[in-house]
Amino acid sequence: MTTRSVPATGVIPARPPRGLVLAVITLTLITRIRALLSSQSDPNVGVYYYIAHLWLHGALPYVAAWEYKPPGLFAVCAAGLLLFRDTATASSVLGAIAVIAAALSAYVIVVSNRVAGSPTAGIVAAFFVVSLSTENAGLLSDAELFVNAWIGVAFAFVLARPGWSGVLAGSVAAAAAVQMKLTAAPMLLAIGATLIFQYGPASIAFCTAYAAIVALPFALEALLYLSFHALPAFVDANVSATLRRAFAVRHGARTGASLWVRELRLFSPALELGVFAFARPSRNALVPVLWLVAAGAAIAGASEYYDRHFVLLIPPISIFGALGVERIARLGNRRFRPAIVATVLIGTFLLHGYYEAAQGLRVAYHRFVLGQSDWQTGDYTVVLAALRQTTHGDPSFFAIQISPDVYEDLHVVPPTRYPFTGNLLDGAMWPMIGFSGGHEFERILATRPHFIACGPLETKVDPASAALLRGTLARDYTFVREERNVRIYELRSLAAEPHQPRT
Question: Which residues sit opposite 490 in a β-bridge?
Answer without folding.
Answer: 451, 478
